[in-house]
Amino acid sequence: MGVANITNGYDLNGTPHPEKVFPAGLQAASFVGPAGVGAMHSAQYQSFIDQAYAELATLKLSAGTIYYQKSWTALSLLMLTGNLLDFSAP
After folding, report:
1. pTM score over 0.85
2. 49 in a domain, yes or no?
3. Tell me, what's the pLDDT at 52?
4. Residue 65: its pLDDT value, please?
5. Domain count across the chain
6. Is residue 46 part of a domain?
7. Which residues pair with 28 in a beta bridge?
8. Which residue in 5, 29, 55, 58 is a FRET match for 66, CA 20 to 30 A apart?
9. Does some domain include residue 88?
10. 80-84 long-range CB contacts below 8 Å, 24 or more apart?
11. Which of 69, 13, 60, 14 has the alpha carbon at shortest distance from 5?
12. How many Å apart are CA 90 and CA 32, to the nearest integer?
């Protein structure tokens, strides 16, 4: 499963609901970003991480509200690049 298969609506059991995507066919950074960040736990998912980064870096994953999606884009890119500030560090 690659980044292109991520949709913007799921049931709690993981069943996708691509019909709920608005506008139709667009992906949201609020789904792609966290999926890419979640994959960072293992090097075996590096290809998926790279795909997520590449899609986020286009700044075009704006399905839904622009402000919300751009915020998820910024947060996800900061984390994926290792530039998210660690507030717990002394």
Report:
1. yes
2. yes
3. 97
4. 80
5. 1
6. yes
7. 62
8. 5
9. no
10. 80/33, 80/36, 80/37, 80/40, 80/49, 80/52, 80/53, 80/56, 81/53
11. 14
12. 31
